[in-house]
C-alpha cells in the first residue's frame, strides 16, 4: 500500500504577491542603504583628511615649509589609510560585500583629499584662491559679482559655476567672492575622487571602479580650476550608462527606461551648465554611437526594438533641453563669433602628442625639445601601453557600453583636435583644441584598465570552464573565505598608496614658486603676493611687498585688469 504525503496548502495569489513585493522592497532598501554608505564613506574620508590637515602650520613661501606641509599630509593619509584597512578587515568578517564597497569608497575620498589638503597648505595665510583675482579665476569672480548685481553673463560661458560661486559667497562668506572662490575650488578638488568613483560604480564593481575610474583621473586633477576636469570624469560614465540603458531597453521596460533616462538627462544638464567643453569634444562620437545603436536595435527588433531604444534617449534629451536648452541656444549662437587666439606651449607641440601638457610640465622643461622624444619611432612607452590597451579593450569588449563610449569619445576628440590644429595657421585661432589632450588621455587610460578587467574575466571564465585549480604562491593555502579578503586588502593598500603619491605630486606642483621659474606654482605665488581688499599684504608675502589690488567692477561694464600670461 502506497502512502502519499498530503499536498501542501496552496498560498493564495494575493499573499504571494505581498511576499514578493516585500522581498523586492527589502532588496531595494538594502541597495539604497549600501549606496548611501558608499557616499558617506567617500565624502567622510575626504572631509576628515582635510580637517586634520587644516591644523598644519607652515610657511608655504619657503621650500622647507612646503616639504614639511606635504609630509604632514602624507602622515595623516597613512594613518587614515591604515584605519580604513583595519576597519575593512573587521567588517569583512560579517559583511564582506558591504565592507569592500565602503573600503573602496573611502580610499576614493582619500585620493583627492590629499590634493585638496595640499591646496589648503599651499594657500595658508592668504584668503586669495590660486592666482588671486587675475586670469581665468578673476573672470569667474567678476561674473559671480555680475550674478549678484543682476548683470548678464557672457553667452558662451557655462553659467553654472558663476551662479554657484555667487550663491556660496552670499550664503557662507558674507558676499566675499574671492574667499568663496578659494574654498569652492578646494571643495571641488575634494569631490573629484568620490564623484569619479561613484560615477564609475554605475557600471563596474567597487574595486574596478576605484582602480580604473579614479586612476584615470590622476593626470587631470587641476587645483586651479578643478570643476572642469570633474565634469569630464563624470560625463563619460554617464554617457556609457545611457548606452547601456539603450542596449537593454527591451528588458528593462518602458517605465524604468523613462525614469533612468530622465535621471541621466538631469545629470547631463547639470554637468553641461557647469562646463560644456567635453560635450563639444565628444559630440561627434556620441551622435554616431547612438545612431549605430538605434540602427542595430531596428535591425534586430524591428520597429518595436527601435521604439524601445528611443524611449530612454528621448526622456534624457527632454529633461536636458528643459534644464539646459537656453544655454545650449546661447552657446550655438555665440560659436561663430567666439575666437580663441591664445597661442602657447601646447599649440607649438606635435598635435599627435597628448600624454602630457604644458601645465603639467616643470618650467625649465618648456624651453627644451617639447614634446619629449619617445622610444619607438618617437612614441613613448606610456603611449604604447595605452594604444595596446585600446586594442585589447576593443578586441574583448566591443559590445560593452563603457568600451563603446570611451572609444567613441576618443575618436571624436582626435577628429576635432586635428581639424582645429590643421586650420590654426590659416584662421589664426586655437579654439581650445589642446584641451582634447585631457579627454584623450583619460579615455585611453580607462580603456587600458578595462582591457585588464575584461582579460581577467576571460581568464576566470576559462578556469571555471576547465575546472582548473590555480596554485597559490608558496605552500600555504588559504581558505575560500580568507582569499577574497586578502585580495581586496592588497588592492586597497596599493591603490591608496598610488593615489597618495599622485596627490602629493600634484599638490607640490602647485606650491608657490617664483614666477621666474615659469611653472604652475607661480599661480599660487600670486595668491600670496597680491594686495588684499583691505590694503594689507597677505601674511607670507615676499619681503612684505605685494602687487596692487584691482577691485571688481560693480556695474554693466568692466575695467581693464592686469592679466599676466597664464599657463
Provide structural commentary.
- The relative contact order is 0.12.
- This protein starts with 12 loop residues before the first helix and ends in a 39-residue tail after the last helix.
- It has helices at residues 13-53, 63-92, 96-122, 135-149, 160-172, 177-200, 206-214, 227-247, 249-252, 254-274, 277-334, 381-397, 401-422, 424-427, 436-466, 482-509, 521-528.
- It has 17 helices and no strands.
- By secondary structure, the chain is mostly helical.
Percent of residues in β-strands? under 5%
- Ends apart, CA distance between termini: 95 Å
Structural class determined from secondary elements: mainly alpha
* Count of discrete alpha- or pi-helical segments spanning 4 or more residues: 17
Whole-angstrom Rg: 26 Å
Mean of pLDDT: 88
Output the helix-strand order.
HHHHHHHHHHHHHHHHH
Tell me the major beta sheet: none
Note the overall shape: globular
What's the number of extended β-strand segments? 0
Uncertain segments: 1-9, 472-482, 561-567
Give the proportion of residues in helices: 55-70%
Name the features:
single chain; 567 residues; 17 helices; 0% strand; disordered N terminus; disordered C terminus
Gist?
By secondary structure, this protein is mainly α. The protein has helices spanning 13-53, 63-92, 96-122, 135-149, 160-172, 177-200, 206-214, 227-247, 249-252, 254-274, 277-334, 381-397, 401-422, 424-427, 436-466, 482-509, 521-528.
